[in-house]
Each structure stands twice: as C-alpha cells, then as structure tokens.
Design brief:
Blueprint lengths: L1 E5 L4 E5 L1 H10 L8 H9 L3 E4 L6 E8 L6 E10 L5 E10 L7 E4 L2
Length: 108
Amino acid sequence: MIAYFSPYLGKEVVLTDERYDHIKKQHPELLPEYEFALAETVRDPDSVRKSMRHVNARLFTKYFDSIRDGKYAIVVIVTDSLPEPRDWIITAYLTRKLGGGDVEWKKN
C-alpha cells in the first residue's frame, strides 16, 4: 500500500496493492513507468472534476508534456465514509483529451 498526501483534500489518499495491480494490468501505459505522474497528480493537480459515474468520486487531472508527446494523467479518487472515512485511488490512466465532469477546482 502507498499513501500520497493530497493538499486539495487535506489528507492522505491510499493506493492499495490490489488497485496498483489493477492499474498496472488495465493501464500499462501508466504503470510502472510513469508512477511519478500518478503521485504528482494527487499532490499537485491542474484541475479536479466531479465524476459523472460515481457521486463520491473525483478525477484529479494533470498535464505532462514529458509523457508520450503530451498526455494528461487522470487519477480517480473515491471518498468513502463507511465503514470508516477514507480516500482511495480506484483507477488511473493517461489520455490526450479531458472528458466530461463538472470542474470543481482549477489551478490558476
């Protein structure tokens, strides 16, 4: 398990071994080579969007011109209150374009 501090959320965000393996298998373009992008996106996002799929999820986004001629890293963070409060990464991936979801916060 890995924990990253999110200044936006004001707390630690957990990446479990199971979710790490999921991302590595489903999105091999991101992990393990660009693990730094996942961490940096949680720590210093360009924007945070509300998920269109899950009411308790946010998409943290950050653009990296150094990744494959320019890609966005997207990290999906779920906030749970039961059975105990926690914020955890459900998935992450790279993309050329940002999709939907209302912007909750954007870096100036």
